[in-house]
Design brief:
heterodimer; A: 403 residues; two-stranded antiparallel ribbon; 5 helices; 22 strands; globular; B: 437 residues; Jelly Rolls; 2 domains; five-stranded antiparallel sheet; 39% strand
């Protein structure tokens, strides 16, 4: 028995050494493609809704609604990258799309439904929409300097579409004198370099000038990464993305409309309502400059139990729309524990607050050297509490091929 | 580090366990527990046209003037009217007329001869004036206009006070003894109901001396044209309360009866022949009647608010308050109504076309079955609980009775601003679950 045990340990030891040298080693040339998709809110959890007998508790929703209101977040970043590694030198090129959208509905409507109202109290429902779509291309140069590993990633990005705090407001009030006032405003503004036209009620992009219009508004930023492995199983690192030249969007399209109504409450049925037809602008020349988020992140990476367990912990911050009138600062963190079986199979769990979303997930990597598959799923929400109960979900999938 | 790993593992497991319990909803319900408030605003009715001076006192007689009376602009809680009438105006010469004895006497006596009206030379009649005048109004008309505006029950009221002021002047230091009798007369100024004849000065057998006074100059308010001179603090020859007499108006059998005054003056004092001939003094008598629209309630008064607000609705044509065309029309809405725990009507009355001491009782019979609940009229909350609401829904047609009650012996008055103004709001408290699908 002892002999068999010693033999197994010997085999495992040799396999580890072999796997370490074969599977964990960087590929000389690799091509990676994939995307992540994320969608969440900070109020309504799937656990509350995915029930046989669904009860929508208006009071509970109002109690749970954060002071900043109901937020829906969507994020996606499909990308393709190619890397070339020559000993300690590495070169890479990546391109992709970054899409981020955030919709906020203030708390007033939920408070009205959940708690009620008092006479003369205005119920103001304000919907704000923020969205950013960037296309980018990035180079990556990595090299070692003494014990340090450097990466420099200059990127050119094109802001394809930006929606900045656009939305609408509906205000309703029942005054003590019995008057009901209702006022609604819609003002949706979309900034883009693209040339849209409206034909037969459909929005079309002028493809003839697509290339020229897109490439006149590009901007630059650069990401610098530094890692310092103190030992084979413990290292630290940091990464920062700094905007250099903002991207430019030169057209603004808008949809505006308004509606106002005032009537004694007992005469509402006798009055007529007139909605103004939405006014759709054909696009006016208005420049807007925007950068991708400024970011900084520092981390600690350690491997335990003969590298069978990897622990990663880091923190930093992001600054969305830096150097603008309304920069949005947010902290970030990530903690991950990964069980690594010879770098062939990895299974990890992680929790993070990145890009204003708390996410907790499960990730898996299957690496057979020529092909690597990275898959993962998360539960997430902008609210920490709601992030555990299915208020949002995300997934990622990346395929890497190389040798 | 181990703890962190365990925590993360737990989070992952939690997600999977949670997701394992998910089911596709088969029913969707909304649970509500809130307090909603809505205001219906003010319900107003202005009664200035129904209770104006023309409708309450339609007097059309030369020499009789009717004023909106607002003495010193002090008491806006009581509408008052002032009726003034010149009862008599004649010079002494005219009073004597073609009396040959007097003319002979005057012809032969010297100018500085003092004539003592109390003791005229033999053969000369006393200097007296008598006659009858009508005020051309009937206080029952006031009651009638109030009854028309507010309801038949308002007939059970009596005027609290009706001050009458007599102003008698003859000049030159003369005074007058008088008998003044008020009565309800016909068009020929004959008493219709002698039992109600009332002497306000003297009696059937003797006269009363009246000091010499003149009707004060009546000052009016520039905005409202109301007389603001307070006759109560001005000098008058006679000051009496005619309330009892006026309240008898409703007992007079003829509706065309008018308030009349029978006068009998006997002038007293001394004056020289010169004064008599050259100055020719006059006997002038004015009467001023103040009519405060303030009554004592002689029997319980009940006002039907619903009829009062919407005078086009007669009691026989009441429709369902929810406007339903049938008893089952709300059946589809019952699941929503079931979630209502209580509904409260919050009312506040800021103006009433009448006031009463002690207060006015507001009675509500929501189901129309004469089961009244009483509330203060000035303001309050009428709450219907879950059972009340269901009883209302199950009653068709639902014709609630809203009544205002003024108890017997209360003092009731009509203010200068004659409007009804009530603010109405509703509070709905929900606590229940409504199945939508």
């Amino acid at each position: 028995m002892k002999k068999i045990l010693l033999l197994l340990i010997f085999v495992c030891f040799n396999m580890t050494i072999f796997a370490e040298s074969f599977f964990a080693k960087h590929r000389f040339l690799e091509l990676k493609a994939g995307t992540d998709v994320n969608f969440s809110n900070n109020l309504l959890a799937a656990n509350d809704f995915m029930k046989k007998d669904l009860v929508i508790d208006l009071r509970k929703i109002a109690e749970d609604c954060p002071d900043e209101g109901f937020t829906v977040l969507a994020k996606m970043s499909p990308s393709v990258e190619m890397n070339l590694n020559i000993k300690s030198l590495g070169f890479g090129f990546s391109t992709g799309i970054e899409y981020f959208q955030r919709m906020d509905l203030n708390k007033s409507l939920f408070e009205f439904l959940g708690y009620g109202n008092s006479i003369g109290q205005s119920v103001i429902s304000e919907l704000k929409n923020n969205a950013e779509v960037f296309a980018y291309a990035q180079l990556d140069a990595g090299f070692n300097f003494k014990k340090l590993r450097f990466h420099v990633k200059p990127a050119v990005f094109i802001p394809v579409l930006v929606i900045n705090n656009s939305g609408g407001t509906v205000t309703a009030v029942n005054e003590a004198d019995g008057t009901v006032r209702l006022h609604a405003d819609l003002n949706m503004e979309v900034h883009t370099p693209l040339d849209f036209t409206m034909e037969d009620g459909q929005i079309k992009i002028n493809t003839e000038s697509l290339e020229s219009t897109l490439f006149t508004g590009y901007g630059f930023d650069v990401t610098a990464a530094l890692s310092l492995p103190f030992t084979e199983s413990f290292g630290i690192g940091a990464e920062a993305r700094v905007p250099l030249v903002p991207g430019r969007l030169n057209k603004k399209y808008s949809v505006t409309s308004s509606f106002a109504f005032e009537s004694p409450v007992l005469e509402i049925a006798n009055n007529t309502y007139v909605f103004n037809q939405p006014v759709v602008s054909n696009g006016i020349e208005e420049e807007m400059y925007i950068n991708r988020a400024l970011k900084f992140f520092a981390y600690v990476d350690t491997k335990l139990f003969a590298k069978f367990v990897e622990i990663y912990a880091g923190g930093g911050f992001g600054l969305r729309r830096p150097f603008s009138e309304i920069p949005i600062f947010y902290p970030e963190y990530k903690i991950a524990v990964t069980f690594n079986a010879f770098s062939i199979f990895k299974l990890g769990i992680f929790t993070q607050y990145m890009d204003q979303v708390f996410a907790h997930g499960l990730g898996m990597t299957l690496n057979v050297r020529l092909v690597q598959l990275d898959l993962g799923a998360t539960i997430q929400s902008a609210s920490f509490k709601k992030s555990f109960v299915g208020a949002g979900a995300g997934a990622y999938a990346y395929v890497t091929v190389g040798f | 580090m181990k703890k962190a790993s365990a925590l993360l593992s737990l989070a992952g497991l939690l997600f999977f366990f949670n997701s394992c319990s998910w089911e596709i909803p088969e029913t969707v319900s909304v649970k509500t527990n809130a307090s909603y408030n809505f205001s219906f605003g003010n319900f107003e009715k202005n009664l200035d046209s129904e209770l104006n001076i023309q409708s309450m006192l339609s007097i059309d007689k030369e020499g009789v003037s009717v004023y909106d009376y607002y003495p010193q602009k002090k008491d806006s809680k009581i509408q008052q009217f002032l009726i003034t009438m010149k009862i008599y105006e004649k010079s002494l010469a005219d009073i004597f007329g073609d009396n040959t004895s007097l003319n002979s006497f005057l012809q032969y006596c010297p100018d500085d001869f003092t004539i003592d009206l109390n003791n005229l030379p033999g053969g000369l009649p006393p200097l007296a004036a008598s006659g009858t005048e009508t005020f051309d109004f009937n206080p029952a008309e006031i009651m009638s206009s109030i009854k028309d505006a507010l309801g038949n029950d308002f007939a059970a009221v009596e005027l609290c006070s009706v001050p009458v002021y007599i102003y008698c002047s003859a000049g030159n230091g003369l005074s007058a003894d008088a008998k003044l009798k008020m009565f309800y007369g016909d068009s020929a100024k004959n008493s219709i109901s002698p039992v109600y004849d009332t002497y306000i000065a003297g009696s059937a057998t003797e006269r009363k001396n009246l000091s010499g006074t003149t009707l004060p100059e009546l000052e009016t308010d520039t905005r409202t044209s109301a007389v603001i001179t307070d006759l109560a603090i001005e000098n008058s020859s006679l000051n009496q309360d005619l309330a009892l007499f006026m309240n008898n108006a409703k007992n007079v059998p003829r509706s065309d009866a008018k308030v009349c005054i029978d006068y009998d003056f006997l002038l007293k004092g001394e004056l020289t022949k010169g004064q008599f001939v050259s100055e020719n003094p006059k006997l002038v008598v004015y009467a001023a009647i103040v009519l405060p629209v303030k009554f004592t309630v002689t029997n319980n008064i009940t006002l039907d608010i619903r009829q009062f607000i919407d005078s086009s609705n007669s009691s026989n044509q009441r429709t369902d308050i929810f406007g339903r065309s049938g008893p089952t029309e709300f059946r589809d809405m019952m699941k929503y109504i079931d979630a209502i725990r209580s509904t409260s009507l919050i009312y506040s009355t800021s103006a009433m076309p009448f006031k009463a001491e002690p207060g006015i009782i507001f009675s509500v019979d929501i189901l129309g079955n004469n089961d009244y609940r009483e509330y203060e009229l000035d303001g309050g909350i009428v709450t219907f609980n879950y059972d009340d609401i269901h009883n209302m829904i199950n009653t068709y047609p639902l014709c609630p009775n809203l009544k205002i009650k003024i108890l017997k012996d209360a003092v009731f008055s009509v203010p200068r601003t004659k409007e009804f103004k009530m603010n109405l709001a509703v509070n709905i408290i929900t606590d229940g679950t409504i199945q939508l699908f």
